[in-house]
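Class, look over these C-alpha cells:
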Amino acid sequence: MFDCHIHTKYSTDSKLEIEDVIRRTQNMCIGATITEHMDINFPKPNEYIFNVEDYFKEYEKFRNSKLLLGIEMGMMPSALAKCKSLSENYPFDYIIGSVHLVEGVDLFESEFYRNKTKKEVYSQYLNSILHSIKEYDFIDCLAHIDYISRYSQFSDKELYYEDYKEKLDVILKELAYREKALEINTKRFHEKSAVDNMKTIYKRFYELGGKLVVLGSDAHMEEAIGNNLNLAKELADSCKLNVVYFKNRSPQYYK
C-alpha cells in the first residue's frame, strides 16, 4: 500500500526530511509518494511554492519502486498556465489537484466566512472545485474534497452529501467522466462521524461512474505518515472503488 500524500521540507508548512519518510514507510512496509505544495499566487508572498529543479535534483536519487515524486497543485485560475507548464516539463509520478483558496482567500482565514451562511460558504467552495477540475484536466486526482471541514468557522463543520447533493453530484460525475481519481484523505479519520459522512460521498462517486481512489495521510510530520490507511482501504472496498497509486502519471493497481 502507498501513502500518496506526504509533505517534506519543500512544503512551507513542513520540516520533514525525506530520510524520515523512508525510515517510517520502511518500518510500516508501505510505499510513499512525496507531494509538495505548489500554490502559485498564494496571498502570502513566497509561501507554498518551491523550486522544482532543486526538488528533483535532491530527491531523484531516492526515487524507486517504493518512493515516488509528486506534487500538490493549488488549483486557482490565475495559476493555470504555470501549473500546466510544470505538469508538462517535469517528470512527476503523480499530480494532486487541490482547492485551498476560493477567489484568492485562504479557507483557513476567518475572512472567508465573515457575514456568510454555511450554505453560502460551502456552495462557493464546491463551485470552485467544479470550475477547477474542468480547467485543470492534467491532474491525476482531486484531493481532500472535505478540506473545508478542517477549518470551517461553523459549529457543524461537516460537508453533508444531502445538503449539497446537486453540486456534489456534478463534481463526482465530472471526475468520473474525466477518469480522474478521488483521494481518500485520512487527515480527519480520527473522527468517526467524518468517516461515516465521507463514506456517503464515496459511495455516490461509485454510483456515478467513479472507479479510482488514492489513499493519502496528508502527513507533515513523521508520526502522521501512514495514519489510518487501512481504514481508508476498508472504506474504498465497501464502496467498490479501486485503490491505486500513480507512477509515471499512470494508475498502478495493487496485486
